[in-house]
Amino acid sequence: MDAYIALEDGRVIEARGRAAGQTHGELVFTTAYTGYEESLTDPSYEEQVLTFSYPLIGNYGVREERFESDRIHPRAAVAHEFTEDIIEWFDRENVPAIDHIDTRELVTSIRKQGAMQCGIVAGPNVTPTEAEAELSQCQSMSDHVDIGKRVTTVEHTTHGAGDIDVALIDCGAKMSIVDSLVERGATVNVLPFDTTPHIISSMDPDIVFISNGPGDPANFEAAEALVAELNGQIPIAGICLGQQVIARALGGTTEKMDFGHRGINQPVRDLDSGKVVMTTQNHGYTVDEPGDTLSVRQVNVNDGTAEGLVNEELDIITRQYHPEAHPGPHDSLGFFDEVLSMTEHDVLKPSMTTDQ
């Protein structure tokens, strides 16, 4: 099966087609060498083409219990080599996949030039011209103004039966976030990304939690308005996109990064303790300025970007990385204990939940 990937920098690279199809999106990479099932089902990859820097993907099969959502979210996948097990999964979900590419060179290009748009074609007798035609249809991530609708829950769902009621605003939430809260004694109400303050007030939860999600945080205006209206009335927490939305709601600004943070070995320093932990990350935007309401509590060791924000008086705490870490290290799981401790309830602490 033939395949081509047309890049924004003008190159067209020949590849081996493994799962047929034609598509386009923002080309990004992850450095994670395990957890391909979790990465591929992470809603934060919506509208992107995911390149794996690790050379062999699919070597331990595909197990549904590892999924973070109900489907593959990247529009296509790229690797040096895919195994047959994972190709069967791509075929079932009609997601194009290509391999036999020098992914080392491709990742280096993204690091030098930034995340770039691409077009991909895979199938019998496909041509470079068809890949270039797909590339011409690409939009920037900021132009995907309706991206939240494609990753949010359709209706209110409830998980767990604990004493702490969490209203989780689903902007593309990973199931591991829900599981981490439930394990600690929470009842998690997963709500659509455009839930109104009136609905939240009628539910009277103990905490509002803004989830991770794809794309530009500026396109999640409803979640931003929710935080702006409820801050000071109820504890608020957020992860990844959630941190960005909360910062914007409270006077901060966000910006697009050159190639983002995507992998399981990003070092983060806590400014109070000086402690450094390794973290799992997947984001292309970051908080540029936190504003006057929030203080930066943690920073990325590599580039100094904000990794944790806090306002203790207002009971607001956020993380840019993924403390639930699927895949990745468990260094920062204690974040969920911090979140739930903002309520008046006792927090159940399962094994391996505190910072190590």
Looking at this protein, list some descriptive labels.
single chain; 356 residues; alpha/beta; Glucose Oxidase, domain 1; Rossmann fold; 10-stranded mixed sheet; 7-stranded mixed beta barrel; 10 helices; 19 strands; 22% helix; 34% strand; globular
Task: Categorize the overall geometry.
Answer: globular
Give the CA-CA distance, first to last residue: 48 Å
Structural class: alpha/beta
| Gyration radius from CA atoms, angstroms | 20 Å
Instruction: List the uncertain runs.
Output: 351-356
The mean pLDDT is 95
SSE string, helices as H and strands as E: EEEHEEEEHEHEHHEEHEHEHEHEEEEEH
CATH homologous superfamily title of the largest domain: Class I glutamine amidotransferase (GATase) domain
How many E-type strands? 19
- Strand-residue proportion: 25-35%
Q: How much helix is in the residues?
A: 10-25%
Q: What can you tell me about this protein's structure?
A:
The chain has 356 residues and is of the alpha/beta class. It folds into two domains: 2-139, Carbamoyl-phosphate synthase small subunit, N-terminal domain (Glucose Oxidase, domain 1); 147-340, Class I glutamine amidotransferase (GATase) domain (Rossmann fold, 3-Layer(aba) Sandwich), CATH 3.40.50. The chain is built from ten helices and 19 strands. It has helices spanning 36-40, 84-92, 103-113, 128-135, 147-151, 175-183, 197-203, 221-230, 241-249, 335-340, and strands at 2-7, 12-19, 21-30, 48-52, 56-57, 76-78, 81-82, 97-99, 116-123, 157-159, 164-170, 186-192, 207-210, 236-239, 253-270, 276-289, 295-300, 306-311, 316-319. A ten-stranded mixed beta sheet has the order 10-12-11-13-14-19-18-17-15-16, sandwiched between helices. A seven-stranded mixed beta barrel has the order 1-2-8-6-4-3-9. The chain has a two-stranded parallel ribbon with strand order 5-7. Strand 11, helix 6 (175-183) and strand 12 form a beta-alpha-beta unit. Helix 8 (221-230) packs across helix 9. The longest helix is centred in the N-terminal third of the chain and has 11 residues, at 103-113. The chain is globular, with a radius of gyration of 20 Å.
